[in-house]
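Late entry, glycine complex.
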Amino acid sequence: MSKRACVRPVMGLVLALLVCGAASAAREPGKTAIASAHPLATAAGREIIEAGGNAFDAAVAVAAALAVVEPYSSGIGGGGFYLLHRAIGEEDLFIDARERAPLAAHEKLYLDDQGEVIPGKSMNGALAAAIPGAPAALVHLALYYGRIPLDRSLAPAIRLARDGFPVTERYLEMATFRQRELAADPATGEIFLDNGELPALGHLIRQRDLADTLTRLARQGTAGFYSGEIADELIAGVRAGGGIWTAEDLEQYRIVERNPIVGRYRDMQIVSAPPPSSGGIVLLEALNILEGYSLAELDALDRSHLVVEAMRRAYRDRAEYLGDPDFVDVPVARLTGKQHAREVAADIDLAKATPSSSLKPIASPKQGDHTTHFSILDGEGNRVSATLSVNYPFGACYTPAGSGVLLNNEMDDFSSRPMTPNAYGLVGVDANAIAPGKRPLSSMTPTFLVTPDRVGILGTPGGSRIISMVLLGVLEFADGKTPEAWVSRPRFHHQYLPDEILFEPAAFDDAARKALEARGHAFKLSTRDYGNMQAILWDLASNAVSAAADPRGEGTSEVWATPVMMGAELPDEAPTNDGFGESTYQPTLPAEDGSFVPDLEAFGNEAVPGVEE
Ligand code: GLY
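Prediction complete; structure with ligand written out below:
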């Protein structure tokens, strides 16, 4: 790796600052907006912006705080995707911090002697955990895109882990759902339960081991997680629980920067998640199908019918074609092309539902609202749309003793056996089969929407329903609605198989349901409202910024005026998608107190483990 520069010539920066600032003066909102799934995470992001950080520093703070206060949704034992937009250069980037299968994993890992899937094996315990990408992502964001040191942006999360956060209704709902599994692992039960029982509302969840692990990460960068003492602890804990991690697995973990999926729907540019997420491709395919119709001129019934038919066809292709692009060839251009949309839409009948069985064969959903999403826009116009996960609520419900790291069960996102549904009822074939070092296919869909006069940032948790929720949000944006409307819109979902429309009660009244049933659609009432969308709208014409957190969750959004510090510490040379040049990490802020003095050597400015070269 090339020597990473720590200090840029000040004059060059000032010049870049003036040029970039002048060129894009009209495109700076001058306000920051953060929408996240937990008030403490939103507050952590605000703290870091107010300390001089940019959207990417705030993303580190929000992601790390969510990892502490929403342990059922994401965590440093998990992974995720960050879609970034840098105002300087107007460039979109995608950070793939998806977990990776251990090198000892194989296609039959979760099968019995008869080749049947062993229930629960890919869901609970150490064997269900893939190698986490979340810690590497925090370091990567701080090193390459942030403006302040990682130990500053991680400070709020470390504080929350050390001092504790109060149990909320949502925490209780998730802990009730996974109580048995949480209690099954003593190290996990000790942290997330109260003497083996569900904690009371307001009870403080303190995670001192996690605070220590985060502190090591803050001081040492990826070396503070993927090697050394903590790595030994993680491996010993995983192996004691029947898992198969090795030192090589942790040492080999790399963040991958990928090109986002980019497409158009009418006058809107959509920028979204590429494989190993299915999100961007399925979203674009559905929008391409819908573009063939004048939705605005259709009544609500015809519109719902068409949206379902578009979801059905796009999710079908997900099952057949999508997997980790480093292992399988994904026909991205074809699937996101207008011609493919015309072909698959050819048999759509406005009067009649197309039975999924009449499409080329492939399979049934269960659901949860684990996984998390946040959206950020800073005063300079930098944007982050991030969806992060440990997969099922509380992941694998397994914590290697002493580490405080609750492990994901993302291995369940692979197809353990062709056409056998996973926890979300999603099926797949070889493209998403388990292989050593492979990333499991995801549905996470962090997305930007750009029209000549508006910018939208959105995403949500929700397993297989993520993509259909984002699709409905995009259509609300296309209709000129506010972020409140995108996040609160009643939802419905079709994922090809099972052949039914899953819906929230408010999505269809009786008359609409009967009319759609008469066209051949089957309905299934969702047992609960679902999703937790976090959204931001920047109106370029009025320079107004608004944000909204999904009313189904306990999240908060904030918008406040911030001074524009156009790139004062940003690099004059950006990393590329096929390897990284110089580090952009420049700890320029004065320390607030003695504990935040930037430690460049500890950060490995010579060589940064965890970064793809
Ligand atoms: N673990 C949920 C997803 O990645 O889609």
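The longest strand covers residues 79-86. Will revisit in the morning.
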